[in-house]
Amino acid sequence: MNQPRILTVRPEPGEYAWTFGGAPPVARIAPGAVLDLYTEDCFAGNVRSEKDLVSEVCQFPFLNPQTGPFHIEGAEPGDTVAVHFVSIEPARDWAASTTVPLFGALTSTHTTASLQPPLPETVWIWQLDRDRRTAQFSARDGDFEIALPMDPMHGTVGVAPANLEVRSALVPDAHGGNMDTPEMRAGVTCYLGVNVEGALLSLGDGHARQGEGETCGVAVECAMNTVVIVELLKGIPTPWPRLESDTHIISTGSARPLEDAFRIAQLDLVQWLVRDYGFSELDAYQFATQTVESPLANVCDTNYTCVAKIRKEWLPARETHRGLHARLRETAKVLPH
What we know:
mainly beta; 6-stranded mixed β-sheet; 4 helices
């Protein structure tokens, strides 16, 4: 197998995108292209010590910088872009997490307003051991320390939205965006429905690890060196972002309230079973009810994101998305690591 051409992109500080839609492409790529990307952390690299408070070193709305967008040749509305994550590796030996006033699941926010005062700003710097694959938690108010397993992922992956919209890179929705699901890790293929010519794909927001729900609103945020393969599925629509791993098919839904995000993900999974696995709608509804796993992705962003996933070993032996995930896994094996 011939190795595909690799496009390396290392943005300068002024070359990131802060929205999905509304930003000119940084490059045009053909389907099958391999991208070797550097992505900056959600703070644009400005939170480097426990003294660097977000309110002082970051300027809203310039948070969550994205590498891209990339214009994918031949992509049109009604198609699907497939992004296969070959590798996701921290670019530095440290990462940052914080509390942010009026942000997070366990505090007053601008949309859940109360007389409760904002939580104080606190910064945790996590030391990353890239050889041992660990992220070191050190308590700020005690002497507890523990090395947790690293599980690198991308919190934000998306394309330009439909209907001429421009969305902040902080927002998840049907175009993808800031979904913050730990399922977005190496070895996974993400499927995104195309809304505009060229799709305009961007990604960023690397996390060395993150718990389900991202409760305080901030994961273990770090810059990443990431390699992806980008493919195009002509004539296959994808209404909400989907993921495929070696073991699961995975639907996502983003909305508020949380139960609507849950409903979107569950409905998309049922419709996926009908389209590609031969179920009737009611059989799919019953089967999914008894087999689905429903992790939370985030309960802190402008929209919340829920996940619905089913084990492939329990599904009929059918092909989904034209068998693309398996082919991309094979392509990934010949790429330099």
